[in-house]
Every structure is written in structure tokens, then in C-alpha cells.
Amino acid sequence: QKEVEQDPGPLSVPEGAIVSLNCTYSNSAFQYFMWYRQYSRKGPELLMYTYSSGNKEDGRFTAQVDKSSKYISLFIRDSQPSDSATYLCAMSGQGAQKLVFGQGTRLTINP
Amino acid sequence: DAGITQSPRHKVTETGTPVTLRCHQTENHRYMYWYRQDPGHGLRLIHYSYGVKDTDKGEVSDGYSVSRSKTEDFLLTLESATSSQTSVYFCAISESEFSGYTFGSGTRLTVV
């Protein structure tokens, strides 16, 4: 079983929809949670960073962490075609020097 | 990508040949990482460095070695390339162990 599970999709939604992306994990030591966005043939770029549990909002993006359920989510409001990309969750534990990544979910926003 | 460059961007090599990929940063970050990205597997850590001459293995280190003689450069070497090492290789840097990573643009390696 992988430490981090993420549905690879693909996920296709109409423009303006609310998108929900999710990851589950098994390692209870994880405390740092991130979401990366990766456009085709590009490197991943950091989108959201959350420490421990709770919510974080940045513009149209909201990251949620539920440590009791070992479940994290990324919500995208008012989705745009430019949001079409692969979204990867990543997480690490206290003192860890390396992230563990999910497989990535490929998202397409249709105009 | 600002502050981090990978070379070459593309490479085709023959089975059994040695290959070295280079990652160069101008951010003076302490931590550097090499990942490979494959369909169905996502990003997997090969090796990482936490300082000059300080390196450690990641999840998929077999067949790979690394060196870091200067803060700004982190080299990944495939001693004898195999077809299973055909992949996209990403270098990443981070300021601290708790920071997010900044990734390079990747090197697409094909072993024939």
C-alpha cells in the first residue's frame, strides 16, 4: 500500500464549476501538507502549503487537512480553463527532509 | 524556472552507457533533490542532499549515484543506463526541511 493515495482521474468539469481534489494517507506522522500544480511538460509548482490540520485559503483555492481521517483536499472555485493541469498532493513529517507525493490527478476545465 | 536549471533538457542514450544529469541553482538553498516521474507512479525520490558532500538515498536509488561538491550543483549519474531508467527527471531545491520545493523544468531521458 502506498503511503499517499490519490485518484489519477482524469477529471473533466465545465468552466465555473467547483473542483474537489483529494488525497488519503497512512502515515500519522505527516504534518506538512502541500499541493502542487503541474502543467504539461513543465515542473511542478507549489500551490498551497498547510501545517497540521485546518483550512487555508488563497484566492480561488482552499486547502483542507483532516488529520483524524488522514484526508486532505484542495478546492478550486470558479474554475478556469487555465486551471487545467495535473495536481499533486505531497506531505512530510516532523524533521523529514523529503516529501512523499501522490500520483497526481489530471484535471481538465472545459470552456 | 527561476533560480534552478537542469541540463540537458532532452537526452537519448544507449543501454549500458553512463549518463550524468546536472542541476544548478542560484538560490543558495541547502537542500537539493532528484526525483523521477513515471506514469502510474508519480514523483519518486532518487537521492537528496542536505549540504555540500552530504547526500542520502531515496525510495528508488538503485542504479543511481549523486554528487554535490558545491552548494549550487547537484549531479545525478546513471552508472550504466537501462531501459527501466527511461523517465522524466526533476531536480528540486528547498530552503529548509520544512519549506516547499521549487522544481526545475525536467530532463526527459530515453534509454534505447
How would you describe what is shown here?
The complex is a heterodimer of chains A (111) and B (112). Chain A has strands spanning 4-5, 11-14, 19-25, 30-38, 45-51, 54-58, 61-66, 71-76, 85-93, 100-101, 105-110. Chain A is mainly β and 111 residues long. In chain A, strands 2, 4, 5, 9, 10 and 11 form a six-stranded mixed sheet that branches. A five-stranded antiparallel sheet of chain A has the order 1-3-8-7-6, with no helix packed on it. In chain A, strand 6 and strand 7 form a beta hairpin. Chain A is globular. Chain A starts with a strand and ends with a strand. With 112 residues, chain B is mainly β. Helix content of chain B is 0%, strand content 58%. Chain B contains no helices and eleven strands. In chain B, strand 7 (64-70) and strand 8 (73-78) form a beta hairpin. Chain B is globular and about 35 Å long. The relative contact order of chain B is 0.34. The chains are: A mainly beta (111), B mainly beta (112). Chains A and B meet through strand 4 and strand 5 of A and strand 4, strand 5 and strand 10 of B.
N to C succession of SSEs of chain B: EEEEEEEEEEE
What does the overall shape of chain A look like? Answer: globular
Mean pLDDT of chain B: 94
Count of helical stretches of chain A: 0
The number of strands of chain B is 11
**For this entry, what is the oligomeric state of its chains?**
heterodimer
Largest interface: A-B, 23 and 24 residues
Task: Give the number of helices of chain B.
Answer: 0
Structural class of chain A: mainly beta
Rounded to the nearest angstrom, the radius of gyration of chain A is 13 Å
User: What is the percent of helical residues of chain A?
Assistant: under 10%
The main sheet of chain A comes to:
6 strands, mixed
The span between the termini of chain B is 29 Å
Order of helices and strands of chain A: EEEEEEEEEEE
Give the rounded overall mean pLDDT of chain A: 93
How much strand of chain B?
Answer: over 45%
